[in-house]
């Protein structure tokens, strides 16, 4: 077996396919001092790529990131051709042609007859089998995957994909190249979607199916995932950016490999793609855009009316919060900071006083960080009255419970609220996974009961999932929506089913990440890095699992599996084993990682 080019000789690199991704990769290489041979069968594509590089480097000069002399050097290192024979002298060829086996395999056969024996051939696929493409080459040991993320100049992640045929020196050479380009290479095996897209597209598919079922509006699904998980984009907007047709192709490949129903493309993806509604590039997908290629969303028939017509609401001048934990004290703080008098009731006066003391500390931290004045903090604290029983809720207009996530406990509490609260009071549960209707039925007035799911920490997180049951009165729904706005939260509407929006989309993604580790496909560090660098996630899945708590995560996954009965939602065995061993995450000092004891 010939040794592949060492990293120092990967100087001349051919990029085949000068669409958005190919042009971006060419820019990264040229800026890093490589000689770049851009190849596309379309003269228009080559001219567009040259113009794009000229424009990008001109912006860099204006922003003083490049000198004019450096810009001239970058442009001189990028040459374009329409014939594949131009790749003859390349040390590395990166193909970024359409995601189609026939096209890519034909390209690899043609390259075999053109390039040197020591040239490394890389596919930029994010969905197709690298092994299958390598098998078509005369030198399969020199074929691997080099998956950049869009936009290539900005995104740090590069997945380096080995097949069972790939020679380790070839992997080492391109891995070193990726580092020299200022990228973060992550080594992964050959399976559809690799790590980042393998996790991302399952989540996007579920979001599309959720929208298709009319469970929630596109705006609410996207807002929920942005505000509830800190994601840079909502899933439906991201599908439009990626291309609905591209997403469908990736999912088809994933489903063919896994057989997992979570990867079976939602029918709406096929309907949109076949209608030519492929997202931003066509001007319409899940959303409608100003023009093809535009990122500006415009109103269409599905856009909610401004100042949604919810009808009459009930007056709310005082609020009761039941509970003494972090969530209860956080919610009480939110209402008090918005000017509502709050009764904070716990199982004893001592617990209620302790909860108010926790709020005082929270407000003190806000003052020390300059987010709040001492006068405002004192006023907020003065609006909170701690109480040792629910009897103190006799005059509140809105009662919000934030007690243990246990159905029997919540039902008992709501039976108590039913006896204590005045007629017409709105009763809200903050459950994140239990059926709201089961809580409502513990009262004689289920029409007054609604879900009001805050996210932790409540003072900081902007999202509230507003969960209507089949019995919730219209004016109760209108009241809670109105109150959310008054306390400066973003309400999203959803129906009464397990996980609501955020957890129903988040936890299958987390579960799939654990299954990747179980199958020895990738390590937790690689997966966390891939999702942060490739998906723009604020935390990797294993970081997040350890923060949330593995016991909490397992409980939510069990509820989702029980409700939807999908085998793909069955909690991973590794998660169950860790919970059984008492490894619950940061709170116990060990979960997927170990943490220093404080």
UniProtKB/TrEMBL annotation:
Residue stretches making up the 3-hydroxyacyl-CoA dehydrogenase C-terminal domain: 193-289, 499-595
Oxidoreductase keyword on record: yes
Protein's pathway: Lipid metabolism; butanoate metabolism
Keyword annotations: Oxidoreductase
Domain 3-hydroxyacyl-CoA dehydrogenase NAD binding: from-to ranges: 12-190, 319-496
Tagged with keyword Glycoprotein: no
Family (UniProt): Belongs to the 3-hydroxyacyl-CoA dehydrogenase family.
Protein name: 3-hydroxyacyl-CoA dehydrogenase family protein
Organism, as annotated: Streptomyces goshikiensis
């Amino acid at each position: 077996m010939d040794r592949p080019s060492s990293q120092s000789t990967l100087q001349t690199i051919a990029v085949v396919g000068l669409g958005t991704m190919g042009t971006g990769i060419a820019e990264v290489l040229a800026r890093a001092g490589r000689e770049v041979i851009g190849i596309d069968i379309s003269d228009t594509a080559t001219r567009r790529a040259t113009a794009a590089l000229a424009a990008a480097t001109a912006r860099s000069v204006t922003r003083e990131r490049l000198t004019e002399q450096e810009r001239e050097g970058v442009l001189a290192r990028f040459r374009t051709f329409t014939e594949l024979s131009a790749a003859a002298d390349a040390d590395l060829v990166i193909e970024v042609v359409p995601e189609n086996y026939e096209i890519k395999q034909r390209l690899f056969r043609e390259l075999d007859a053109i390039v040197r024996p020591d040239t490394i051939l890389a596919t930029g696929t994010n969905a197709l089998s690298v092994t299958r493409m390598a098998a078509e080459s005369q030198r399969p040991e020199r074929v691997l995957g080099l998956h950049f993320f869009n936009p290539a100049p900005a995104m740090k992640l590069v997945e380096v994909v080995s097949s069972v045929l790939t020679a380790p020196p070839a992997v080492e050479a391109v891995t070193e190249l990726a580092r020299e380009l200022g990228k973060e290479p992550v080594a992964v095996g050959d399976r559809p979607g690799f790590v980042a897209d393998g996790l991302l597209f399952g989540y996007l598919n579920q979001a599309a199916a959720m929208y298709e079922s009319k469970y929630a509006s596109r705006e609410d699904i996207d807002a929920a995932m942005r505000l509830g998980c800190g994601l840079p984009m909502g899933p439906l907007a991201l599908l439009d950016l990626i291309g609905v047709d591209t997403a469908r192709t990736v999912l088809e490949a994933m489903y063919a490999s896994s057989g997992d129903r979570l990867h079976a493309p939602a029918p709406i993806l096929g309907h949109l793609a076949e209608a030519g509604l492929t997202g931003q590039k066509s001007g319409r997908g899940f959303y409608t855009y100003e023009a093809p290629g535009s990122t500006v969303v415009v109103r269409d028939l599905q856009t909610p009316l401004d100042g949604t017509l919810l009808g009459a609401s009930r007056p709310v001048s005082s609020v009761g919060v039941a509970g003494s934990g972090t969530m209860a004290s956080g919610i009480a703080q939110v209402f008090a900071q918005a000017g509502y008098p709050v009764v904070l009731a716990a199982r004893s006066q001592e617990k209620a006083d302790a909860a108010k003391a926790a709020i005082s500390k929270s407000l003190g931290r806000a003052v020390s960080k300059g987010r709040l004045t001492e006068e405002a903090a004192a006023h907020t604290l003065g609006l909170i009255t701690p109480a040792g029983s629910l009897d103190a809720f006799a005059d509140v207009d809105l009662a919000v419970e934030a007690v243990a996530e246990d159905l029997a406990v919540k039902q008992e509490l709501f039976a108590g609220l039913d006896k204590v609260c005045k007629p017409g009071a709105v009763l809200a549960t903050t459950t994140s996974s239990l059926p709201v209707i089961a809580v409502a039925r513990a009262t004689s007035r289920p029409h007054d009961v609604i879900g009001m799911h805050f996210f932790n920490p409540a003072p900081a997180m902007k999202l509230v999932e507003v969960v209507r049951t089949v019995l919730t009165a219209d004016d109760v729904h209108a009241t809670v929506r109105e109150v959310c706005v008054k306390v400066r939260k973003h309400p999203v509407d959803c129906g009464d089913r397990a996980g609501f929006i955020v957890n129903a989309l988040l936890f299958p993604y987390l579960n799939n990440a654990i299954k990747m580790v179980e199958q020895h496909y990738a390590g937790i560090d690689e997966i966390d890095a891939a999702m942060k660098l490739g998906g723009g996630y604020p935390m990797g899945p294993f970081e997040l699992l350890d923060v949330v708590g593995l016991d909490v995560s397992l409980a939510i996954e069990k509820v989702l599996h029980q409700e939807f009965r999908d085998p793909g939602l069955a909690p991973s065995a590794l998660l169950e084993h860790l919970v059984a061993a008492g490894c619950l995450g940061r709170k116990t000092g060990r979960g997927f990682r170990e943490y220093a004891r404080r």
